[in-house]
Amino acid sequence: MWEIVLTIFNLTFASLSLTLGTVKVIAVRREPGLALTLTASVLLLCGLIFLLATPSIYRFVGESVSSPNIPALLIPVATLLCVGHAHVMTQLWQPGRSTPQELRRWGAAWLPLYLVPPMVMTTLYFLADLPGQAQPLRFAAVYAHIPEVLALEFTYFAALTTGVVASILQCRKVLKVLLPDLPDLAKALSRCILWFSVALALDLANAALQLTAMISAIDGDHHLDALAEAAWLATIASCFAANWGLGMLVFEARRGERSDYRTLKPLWKIIVADSTPQLILRTLPFSRDALDRKIIEISDGSRYLGDWMSVAPARAVAVVREHQLRVLELQAEHGDELTTGMIQADLGASEEYATWLLTQSSEDSCEHAHFNVVAAQAAATLLYADALRRQDRPPVSSEHLLTQLPGNDLPEEDERPHLVRVAQYATGGARRRSLWSLWRKRPNNPHPIVVQALVLVAEGETHSRAARA
Fold first, then answer.
1. Top CATH class, 2-255
2. What does pTM read for this prediction?
3. With contact defined as beta carbons under 8 Å apart, do 401 and 310 qualify?
């Protein structure tokens, strides 16, 4: 009965690991990278370990090479290689520690740990006199009286303990480095590292249980031999924890991509689908390149609006934000006694505008702290330019033309988060308020500061036309 249960578990995990590993190998061929290569290799090694630990396959492999217990050597060697892969991955997770020079330095220090013990273990295995039949998962306990087997197992336990402890310490170091500097990354990565650490600790639990059974069997007492088989449950749990941790990281990344895709879609519809459909690159929704194509199309669409991009919306956003911060200072000074009249007197603003500023000052303080002026300026500029073009208004005169959309000079790695923030300010996250009648047909809710800035621009245009008349 135990072998049937073990076979089901092992074959299930082997098939999952090998399938995921094959998928990662295909991904590596498309997008080569060390981290992805290591992930693929770990998954394939895990699949191999679970196959070899399946009793029927264990016996088949042993009979095929005329060495009944050869899987008892291959399994710990593959396990050490998995731990070595995990150790390298903890190095890659540390900012500034994944350069070729740092990796070579790491290799010089740690590769002997994952290369020398397997060679020693292989030598000891073939030197040992191992009579009898195959002993799946009971090898260490059954042959505990043979000195070469004892030496082999202690070599494995020592190497495994060293590698696991070093990897767990590296995981803790990664969290200490990431938490202060990269809170968004650390939030997702910390959960992955926690599960990763649990998986490594369970490998130690497996080793401890096997060691207990082996020491008990040295004097011929085999009452605890079953403990060596039960230790495999720790390995199953370890595999589950490691795959769950890595899976969570991948899931978080994919969920973030889908969230950004949905956030960008309303802005994409305004800038591209409704105005310049010739820019659309056909792709399947939520495919791996769908988000990248949305970003490219929005960037191309914004360039088509270049002739209608005025400096007025960006300046208006800066003014509104400056006034908002001033009202927050007044509120801190006067508290609940702050009135619309006091704001009017301080800023020289209209009653309606002062009322709006007073209302906005009571909003969530966290929103005020994280407000991104550059993204809001870009959002206001795009909405204003799009409205002008839709109304068949002439291009902006050269003296008022904006030479570059705010945020266009950001590094490439910041382009996606910036554009997502622009989309949030342009199409979501606030109550609806129309600027022109054209906007009343759109189910979009620009940020209040963006709307108020565009209102100021519209009022300025009205006053300018009245003055000319």
1. mainly alpha
2. 0.62
3. yes
